[in-house]
Write a structure and sequence with these properties.
The structure is a single chain. The chain contains 9 helices and 10 strands. It is of the alpha+beta class. The strands form 2 sheets. Strands 1-8-5-10-3-2 form a 6-stranded antiparallel beta sheet, with helices on one face. Strands 4-9-6-7 form a 4-stranded antiparallel beta sheet, with no helix packed on it. The chain is globular and about 50 Å long. Bound molecules: 2-oxoglutaric acid.
């Protein structure tokens, strides 16, 4: 049970720093099962996948395995949303991301794609990533690193976003490890966690991960949610309500009853916002 005071502090951290860590969310049985499921998904990837996604290691949609519905609608996490002030969150998408031993770093990036809308330049948080690492992480095995405040304030790395977005395949293959997007960045902090902790981050936050210098795989499950979908600007809801940002085709055995309440619905006629991953000069 986490006190109201602690949750208020966590919410302030999400607004100001762009992220927070909430400890011990997944129980050991759930972690064990998620490891088995993730490993089976990773085992199905061919060699090309690991070459094409060297920066992430491997990246597979969670919608490929029905057990992942239990994580998407994990009751303790839904309670965290409520305790943070959001009792009707919606799910967007999620991935199993796993770094093999000796895997290179993950490039600095941000996940926001509604920079065409003025709300992107305010502290009003729209989209969150929720990350569950399935092993304890350290700098040695490739823990997360973030640049606190970079969701609200321009950072030198923002200059590289157009180059990155136009050459994602090359960055994913880690063709140029000396590029600033793979280097130490001003203001960065490490986010080492224990297996089963929950990292919540504003999608606009710059984040990356160290290389994995250990002998074991380092897996994270990243899920994206809209904490307050129904309060979001209508053109953004119209954009998300369209098929493009809906979970991919689901397996037949998918337990829809778990995830249906977390699905976005948009019935209005407002013109959908054109998505953009490029912050403009409005970001000061
Ligand atoms: O691999 C990691 O530690 C972070 C993954 C990530 O950045 C993401 O899922 O957006």
């Amino acid at each position: 049970m986490i006190s109201n005071e602690v949750m208020t502090t966590k919410m302030e951290q999400i607004i100001q720093d762009g992220y927070c860590v909430i400890e011990e969310i997944l129980d050991s049985k759930m972690i064990k099962k998620l490891r088995l499921v993730s490993d089976s998904m990773i085992d199905q990837q061919d060699e090309t996948h690991f070459i094409e996604h060297a920066s992430q290691g491997c990246i597979i949609s969670v919608t490929k395995h029905p057990f992942m519905a239990k994580l998407i609608a994990y009751p303790r996490t839904l309670k965290i949303f409520t305790d943070l002030g959001f009792d009707d969150p919606k799910f967007m998408s999620g991935y199993v991301i796993s770094k093999p031993p000796e895997g290179p770093p993950l490039r600095w990036h941000q996940d926001g794609f509604w920079w065409n809308h003025p709300v992107s330049y305010t502290a009003q948080t729209q989209q969150w990533f929720l990350m569950y690492y399935l092993v304890d992480t350290t700098r040695e095995n490739g823990c997360l690193r973030v640049i606190p405040g970079s969701h609200l304030k321009r950072h030198a790395l923002h200059e590289h976003i157009p180059e990155y977005e136009n050459n994602i395949k090359q960055f994913n293959r880690v063709e140029e490890l000396n590029h600033p997007l793979f280097q130490k960045a001003e203001g960065e902090v490490d986010v080492p966690v224990k297996a089963g902790d929950l990292v919540i981050g504003d999608a606009r936050l710059f984040h990356s991960a160290y290389s994995n210098q250990s002998k074991a795989w380092r897996t994270v499950l990243t899920l994206w949610y809209w904490p307050d979908f129904n309060a979001m600007p209508e053109p953004i809801r119209a954009m998300i309500g369209s098929n493009r940002h809906r979970p991919a085709e689901l397996p037949e055995s998918w337990p829809h009853q778990l995830t249906d309440p977390l699905t976005t619905e948009y019935q209005g006629n407002t013109k959908p916002l054109k998505s953009s991953r490029f912050p403009t000069q409005e970001l000061k």
